[in-house]
Amino acid sequence: MDARLDYAGNPVGARIVKHVVSASRAAHDSSLPAATRELVQLRTSQINGCAVCVDQHAKDAAHAGETSVRLNLVAAWREATVFTEAERAALELTEQGTRIADGAGGVTDEAWAEAARHYDEEQLTALVSLIAVMNAWNRLNVITRQPAGDYRPGQWG
């Protein structure tokens, strides 16, 4: 499959990508645990059907030491016993924040309270921002049909 558009290959797209990368970096430079970041990025990408992001974040997580069991169970995290309470709260917030149009009222107070029980204000800010940024990446990639499968861990920094 060929991409419909090289959005980073034109001046407007390059400027947009520069800002999305900067937002991604801010979330990554926070105190939000690295394992949580990878799980959130992977789950967001699974929900949105973004193959290029699933490829990247599964490979980056594995390269960083994440187990294949946990990576394979992210899509079914509710029934899995391998995630911490904090990770489960982050995954619930991720799902509700990604599926805003599917739920009346967006993110529930219960999901927010559970995430706030496990993460401080800086971490919550990073978590919410990461969910939003991943949704932006997913949409850029899905709309333009970016091909997946060739990603190498660390390729994008």
TrEMBL record:
It holds the Pfam family CMD. InterPro entries: AhpD-like, AhpD_core, CMD-like. It comes from Nonomuraea rubra. One of its GO terms (molecular function) is peroxiredoxin activity. The lineage of its organism: Bacteria, Bacillati, Actinomycetota, Actinomycetes, Streptosporangiales. This is AhpD family alkylhydroperoxidase. Residues 27-95 form the Carboxymuconolactone decarboxylase-like domain. NCBIfam families: ahpD_dom. Keywords: Oxidoreductase, Peroxidase. Transmembrane segments: none annotated.
